[in-house]
Amino acid sequence: MRIAIVALLAAACSSPAPKETPQNPAVKEAPAESYQKSVDDNARKMLDEGRKVFRFETFGSEAFFGGQLRLHEVIAGEKHGGIGKGVTPRDALGLGLRVDFGSIPASLGDVIKAHTLSFDDPENTIALLKHDAVVGVKATFDGDRMTTMGITCAFCHSTTDDNFGKGIGRRLDGWPNRDLDVGKIVSLAPNLKPISELLQVDIDTVKKVLLSWGPGKFDAELNIDGKAFRPDGKPAATLLPAAFGLAGVNLHTYSGWGSVTYWNAYVANNEMYGQGVFFDPRLDDAAKFPVAARAKFGHHRHAGAEDLITSKLAALHFYQLAIPPPSPPKDSYDENAAKRGGEIFASKARCATCHVPPLYVEPGWPMHTAEEIGIDDFQAKRSPDGRYRTTPLRGLFVRAKGGFYHDGRFATLADVVDHYDRHFKLGLMQPEKADLVEFLKSL
Length: 443
What we know:
Layout: H1 2-14, H2 26-29, H3 32-56, H4 62-68, H5 71-76, H6 89-94, E1 99-100, H7 106-113, H8 122-130, E2 137-142, E3 145-151, H9 154-157, E4 158-160, E5 168-169, E6 171-173, H10 182-187, H11 193-199, H12 203-212, E7 217-218, H13 222-225, E8 238-239, E9 251-252, E10 258-259, H14 260-270, E11 277-279, H15 290-295, E12 299-301, H16 310-322, H17 335-346, E13 367-368, H18 370-373, E14 388-389, H19 413-423, H20 430-442
């Protein structure tokens, strides 16, 4: 039998190919070598376009932040066609805004390096905005008059290396800005009526809620469910998440609403109030998402207006997946202890059950009930699935400010380890806990 099979295969191999070989007709037009080049060219193009979108694309959010809230008027000040004294560079840095030194012209950069720039003159904020140097804020000018403004992805998800001063340096895309006081910035707007009408509360309540968030936090569900505070009275806002290390990660956000590109579309349309198309009938659930159902956020479409979002999503997604998690400084942890901690992570502590190396998140559907991880379900219930996502762990050192977990409830990594030791009854000894912390710091 075996001899017969071999003989058959040999005969087949020696037979001439049929004259008319079935073939994809496109192959003649796109041979393998040129097709591979098109792949490489496309990758470079997507990377460049995605970076520009992440840093500078407002998606038409000027209509909301400038046209409705009139936030640009406060920034510009009366001298430049706005209201009040204007926002000085010191004010802006105090609110957690960042200045990209790489966007500043040499003449202005020399003044900053010489420490002769006045940080108390709103005129200098105008100059920085004209050069797109205020990270995540894009202003439009008619001469020296600021006519409107919008925000970009970098507003919340970029910071600077502070090489030229606190809040002034080179961009660090994907790093969450844990100093940015989003609520306080929005509360400065002259017209908060659009928000009060959406939530069906008075303006004083809107301001109270916005000012409750504090630096590094934002409530992405407030405008869909109207829940400003937790049952224990604490603000419902969560920590700004990282936008790096997302390659290979399935669901995005603390409670796993959808993929990375889903959340990009969601935020561009329903958080930045951009001009595009968004569809998610889950938001029609009036019991769970009363505000979103009322406002039809699950059926976002500007009638007759140009879609300024959808065409940008592919490149934005590509760029985000290209941003690697940053490596912690070597002097920020004990290497020997981290090595021991890695062994504990994978064995006695059982961390790798969910935080699977090297992604340090579960491949597939990484969702868990509140009971499984030993916390309350308030934030989980604000999402469609009612669960929490396993958070990728790489680059933890960047997210240390403000605490850990979605709301910063654990101030330190030691607190996180203690929590799981109690919840899962792991029986970790104190030296083992210390080593485990060093390993987490090394990721």
